[in-house]
Amino acid sequence: MSSQPKVLLVVNPISGDVNKDVIFERVIGKSEAEGCDLRIYSTTGDDDQQTIREMVENIRPERVLVAGGDGTISMVAQALHGTDAILCIIPAGSANGLSADFGLSGSIDQALEVAFEGEVSAIDAVSINGEISLHLADIGLNALLVKNYEDSDTRGKLGYAREMLRTLSEHENFDVKITTDDEVLETEVLIVIIANAKKYGTGVSINPIGDMCDGFFELVIAKKLDFIETAKILAGSTDFNPEIMKVISVEKATIECVQKSAHFQIDGEYKGLVEKLEAVILKGYVKVAIPVGLREGE
Ligand SMILES: Nc1ncnc2c1ncn2[C@@H]1O[C@H](COP(=O)(O)OP(=O)(O)OP(=O)(O)O)[C@@H](O)[C@H]1O
Fold first, then answer.
1. Where is each DAGKc domain found (predicted)?
2. Is the CB of 91 under 6 A from ligand 1?
């Protein structure tokens, strides 16, 4: 039996606009240099989570490197939950919001250095109506943008800008009742974000106190903004103005849409209209490799 440390590389062949050949080459080279036994799985879009779970149980890799977007990273995190394998992110999606929150700039060199020499931290997840969010979920304006972008046939910055304008003209504020252990809040909102992390993939910091390892998530409750400010936020050119947003740190919360249902997205994936969300923190959900010193620097 080989005593070499085992590494599994999971690659999503269709994510982002990234040449996966370069990733294959670099990971194979690094694994050889580190004396690791490398296995590779290319996702198919069908039952990947189950297949990866079975591979992890059979192979027992120390590390699972994931080259894909947020959707792939989240899927692999769910496959690794409850195992000792360390999730190592190689940013290769179109938005890469999760990677940005882990201090990964997008270069393969940095991602591989973190994967093999980084610190290991157990990050929380948020269970929302039974689904897993590692990053940011929301109801309202941004979820409608995610829907419009998914429905549109264009991609890239131009397509995003077009869908942003459409979203701004379609969106209407809505009323919510938010219940936490400490308070009940009834208010009109533009958006309610359930934030395990700090930033959207555009780089907009919406949750400055967000820490994926602290055992809490934040509710970021934003009220009506004017058109220009909203456009700037959606375009990623400004952060939320603290005067018009409320941030609450909680372990669990219920959000009810009072008069009409609201659009809902988890980690960049549109989930449909919802009337009620039950969110609860799942502490230390999965082990992740992060840059040395990242958490101390927060
Ligand atoms: N071989 C494949 N063929 C078609 N779809 C696939 C394949 N492998 C995975 N998928 C699909 O890819 C989606 C996940 O993509 P992912 O989020 O990783 O990338 P992205 O959308 O380009 O990036 P980002 O989330 O950063 O915008 C899932 O819906 C999954 O079903």
1. 2-132
2. no
